[in-house]
Amino acid sequence: MDDIKDAEEIEQTFWVKHSFLLLIGISIATALVLVVISMELYASSGAAQLDLSRPGYKDVTSQAVQTDNDFKDYQAFGTLDPSSVNDFKTLYEKEAEKVKAVDAFSGDPLDPAVLEISAPTP
Amino acid sequence: MKIRTAPVLAGMLTSLLVVAISYGIVSAESTSITDAQLNRIKTNCVSAKNTLNQIHASDALLRVNRGQLYESMTTKLMSRFNNRVDSNHYDAKNLISVTQNYGTALTNFRNDYQSYEEQLSNALSIDCTKEPVSFYDSVASSRVKRTQVHVDVTILHQYINDYESAYKDFAAIFFQAHGVNN
Lengths: 122, 182
Known about the structure:
Structural class of chain A: mainly alpha
Number of domains of chain B: 2
Shape of chain A: elongated
Largest sheet of chain A: none
Strand content of chain A: under 5%
Number of helices of chain A: 6
Low-confidence stretches of chain A: none
Largest interface: A-B, 54 and 71 residues
Mean pLDDT of chain B: 86
Number of helices of chain B: 5
Structural class of chain B: mainly alpha
Number of strands of chain A: 0
Order of helices and strands of chain B: HHHHH
Helix content of chain A: 55-70%
Distance between the termini of chain B: 70 Å
Oligomer: heterodimer
Order of helices and strands of chain A: HHHHHH
Largest sheet of chain B: none
Shape of chain B: rod-shaped
Strand content of chain B: under 5%
Mean pLDDT of chain A: 88
Distance between the termini of chain A: 91 Å
Number of domains of chain A: 1
């Protein structure tokens, strides 16, 4: 009986003695788990694709549009009269033209012939 | 309930045959690369990867800049106009319908771009001097996915036109009701 008591006391004394180390260990483990979760969210949410600060994007980072101040907001509330309907038309046509001006992702730059990895012509 | 074993077996065999044929086609595609082409991939590996890196970066920039505009079309214009029309008790059904379709197309664009970018990153991570076949297949897959992103862009442009048409229909009724010639 006394032996069991002694063993429990020794064990208790061990964790009491090393409580600071235990705290550090748990903190590191928690931080690692949180980092893994956040990296997973970063990769799966599509945020990674919008992050131009990643390595390899250094040359284009400066060309990213930070804020599109030219793009005017239309007022979501208020009375609807002929003037406000016409204002929307003017605004929409201007922005739609801007958006449609670029046929993004057109062309075929990944064509093996362009990359010179296609079968050589005889 | 009595199950007839013959049709079930026949179905299973057919499925197996289809899978086997599909696998054969895919394998044939992978192995259809000739030795001369393998050598060409290995020789031009560095230049191909440089080009892919440039495409990777320029497409990312395109995604960020164009994506902002596509988002703004719905958040700053379409949704706001729909709100205003609806809060003034006019019929905004057609406008809302096009906006919802546009939203779905925008989600597809985001997802397809993500899939394309991941595939291209995968291609870039392959050592084409050691694994030329995997590299070629990965680039081919990226190419298909990039084409899909372009299709999504075309659909978005189409919905922008559709919204304009829906607006014109709404405006015609609205101005007529207000006795305005537009």
